[in-house]
Amino acid sequence: MSGHQAASGSRAFLAAIRTRKVLQEVAGLVRGPQRVLPLLGKAGADKLRMKFGSRDIYSYTETKQDTGEALQLLVRWIKRAQRQDGGIAAYYSLLTGYSESYPEVTGYIIPTLYDCGHVTDDREAWGMAERATAWLLSLQMPYGAFPAGLYRGGSQPSVFNTGQILQGLVRAYTESNSSDVLRGAIAAGEWLANAQQADGTWSGPNAYQGVPHTYYTMVSWALIGLSKISNSSFAIVAEKNLSWVLKQVKPSGWIDHINLTGHPTYLHFIAYVIQGLLECGILSNREDLIRAASKPAWVLLRKFEMNRRLLGSYEEDFRGGLHFSCLTGNAQMSCIWLRLFERTNDPRYLNAAIKMNELLKQKLPVRGGSGILGGVSGSYPIWGAYQPFRYISWGAKFFADALMLEQRLSGSFETSRCAL
Amino acid sequence: MRIVVQCSSPYSETGCAMAGRLCQLGQIPVGVLTLPALDRATLFRKFRQWGWNDFCRYAWNKLGPSGDSATAKLRNPYLETALRHEDGLFRNLHEVASAYHFPLMVTADQNSESCIKQFKDWAPDVAIFTGGNILRKEILMVPRLGIINSHLALLPKFRGMSSPEWSLLAGDPLGITIHYMDAGIDTGPVLLRREFSELSHCESLSDLRNRLIAGGIEMVMEVLTSLERGSITPVEQTEVDRDHQYFVMHDRLKVQAAKILKQRQVAALAQLLDRKAG
Prior knowledge:
The structure holds 2 protein chains of 2 kinds. The longest helix of chain A is centred in the N-terminal third of the chain and has 29 residues, at 3-31. In chain A, the strands form 2 sheets. A 3-stranded antiparallel beta sheet of chain A has the order 2-1-5. Chain A has a two-stranded antiparallel sheet with strand order 3-4. Chain A is built from 15 helices and 5 strands. In chain A, helix 9 (217-230) packs antiparallel against helix 10, helix 13 (327-344) runs parallel beside helix 15 and helix 14 (347-362) crosses helix 15. By secondary structure, chain A is an all-alpha fold. Helices cover 61% and strands 3% of the residues of chain A. Chain B has 9 helices and 9 strands. In chain B, the strands form 2 sheets. In chain B, strands 5-2-1-6-7-8-9 form a 7-stranded mixed beta sheet, sandwiched between helices. In chain B, strands 3-4 form a two-stranded antiparallel sheet. In chain B, helix 6 (137-140) links the parallel strand 6 and strand 7 (146-151). In chain B, helix 7 (163-170) crosses helix 9. The longest helix of chain B has 27 residues, at 251-277. The interface between A and B is medium-sized, with 25 and 23 residues.
């Protein structure tokens, strides 16, 4: 088969998948006609806001909503998204309702739940984190990996999802000191180490679309965390991967090989690369990693400040992209800017993050039923390209992280500046 | 010297004051270029910055009957001298233009072809930028010497927006820089740079800004005199960080900047008292 035939074959395959998804979603609406009104209401509200929202470099969004209240709304959304099995649903769709539990998000939402528990003294959040951990350990495959995709019983092991779940296990161990959790985390780490290629990448059947991705810096972050709690050499595996990622950094700040065939390069994935690099840099005190993360973080900060928004996806070298907002990516960028502020003490990062959080608060539904109230939609407007018509659990997770970071850092900033 | 003034609106106090001050000193501009008054984005921004009451008061002062213009309230009281003329205070550029007989061109885009053509016809030696669009290279190249801007902080450090507030937050000295504009943001050669020393009199951040704006106009006049005499040499900004400028400061950080302003005032007053006692 020629290259052209293969390409058109894979395009046809992707189109078939997309068509099936659309039909499933529409069928969901037919099964749940009570969802028609909220769907029309949200679509109409976004249309109006897009029409009349002002956008210039001097103005920025301000809401009257308190950061603490917004955080409570998000936590309430996450609590309602926890399924009976202990896993967290991937999303609430305006067409089909809640999805099944999603192991990947259930994993990396654990640190957020513990943080909420500490910040708001919410015992329920702790309990949720413990239930989520127990469910994840029950899913772990005998060789240490965790399954890909939504939980429907029996699935392919996934490098990225194992890494993301490892993030949660590392935190769960720090909080609980449970030997079962540590054993599970080490098994996951060993599987990841064995699955790594000689060049430091993860590819093949257990990687998304079979190819290496730079956003697997998130896996490296989890491995460095594991290395710290287990006094083992998993950090070497992470460093190997990070060396490969650093080779993909371009002078423009763009990082190549995000590699999402058939999808645009959503801001969510760009932010993953940056966040992974930055957190690895902070954890291992490596300035080269922090510098590599700072460059694209500043490019995006500048774009946000000049245009008062970020695009939902970007093309190579940040040259352009799709005109919608990927709210999860926005929340991730807020986290990144806040962490850079913490590291560098440059208030421009704090300034941008506060503005971004205000913008996200404005998009947070303060009315609506379960699944809508306090949810973070995949896209703004709701029909945008990333997770359309869905409120997604990882969006709520990253926005809650951003708000907690803002509360902590702006408080210490105000105290320190007054002492000038 | 052939001078052109560029403004963000015919009702811009800073623009009127710049043109008015030039006329007072006998340097009548060969032309003034301004964006229209009813620019939606500008109106919206002013409304948000000032609130409903101040916005309406300002609009009434500018657009209402002109009977008692001498008592018209200014948003920036330190511009009163520059705006004063025999009948009272100038309220807009149309009034300044008709009093001193210079042409006024209203354009929606200062980079447009018609605007550049008009600019070339005026053949200015120098242009003074008080607000408007981000200028492209074509228009930057027209004046023989260049386009002058008054930046409300000490360059090269605080390039961009909210610069006095960022200076305060960083604990750095406040000041004004007069510089030529180039394709970058506040990166052009510096003509005059001066620290601001009246901190102890400032009542608030907006008062500080108003004083800096008025101080900037006087410094531009000084620069023009020096340029005419040939006694000033522009100095390139060598340590400029071209990638990292400053952006509009969020109100929450402005609260901190205002607190620092108060602290610095107290310190300045204490120093003054010490000196007097000594």
